[in-house]
Amino acid sequence: GAVVSQHPSRVICKSGTSVKIECRSLDFQATTMFWYRQFPKQSLMLMATSNEGSKATYEQGVEKDKFLINHASLTLSTLTVTSAHPEDSSFYICSARVPRQGWTNSPLHFGNGTRLTVT
Amino acid sequence: AQSVTQLDSHVSVSEGTPVLLRCNYSSSYSPSLFWYVQHPNKGLQLLLKYTSAATLVKGINGFEAEFKKSETSFHLTKPSAHMSDAAEYFCVVSDGGNQFYFGTGTSLTVIP
Hints:
The complex is a heterodimer.
Chain A: E1 4-7, E2 10-13, E3 19-25, E4 32-38, E5 44-51, E6 57-58, E7 67-73, E8 76-81, E9 90-97, E10 108-110, E11 114-118
Parallel strand pairs in A: 2-11
Antiparallel strand pairs in A: 1-3, 3-8, 4-5, 4-9, 5-6, 7-8, 9-10, 9-11
Chain B: E1 3-6, E2 10-14, E3 19-21, E4 23-26, E5 32-38, E6 44-50, E7 56-58, E8 64-68, E9 73-78, E10 87-94, E11 100-102, E12 106-111
Parallel strand pairs in B: 2-12
Antiparallel strand pairs in B: 1-4, 3-9, 5-6, 5-10, 7-8, 8-9, 10-11, 10-12
């Protein structure tokens, strides 16, 4: 159980175009999902917290107009990288938690990530 | 405030020998602690979690970790390394809400 599916796994796009990445919780409903960016040989950097039915909460320094997040249903959050540039090339990962009583010990479940390359 | 320190950025072991990946945390509350493994170009997979029910936690693939409050540590161990264990490992602490704090990761190399 607790499977998070992320699509696509790889995408190459041209500079100036937009790319959409999908994150789905397959066997549970996720009111909250998280989007991370990971640079080579580094840890995960939280970009934003996606909330179903409301606006995402962005971390300091993350441009909300560039990284559009939509969480329109309890099983789907999308991240759109708008007007992509080569410096946006990175590994993007989403995660979600299974809602249950006693959130304290509920771990994050991660998608398999998306490798974005902007040429 | 919560934070996580993974003491070794890189660990190298021979196949069949024990693995020790170290993690120390700081927390103002009773923390939730997790270990994740990441293989190249993949997401993170949960190895084990500390639930406060038992200080010695057993996880998947033969890994276990011991929560030591007095030492604020949550080290990950495995008695015998396998080639497939070569990966990046992350120690994560949570405040119980939506805040998760990631360690900088430890890269494990297994030498045949």
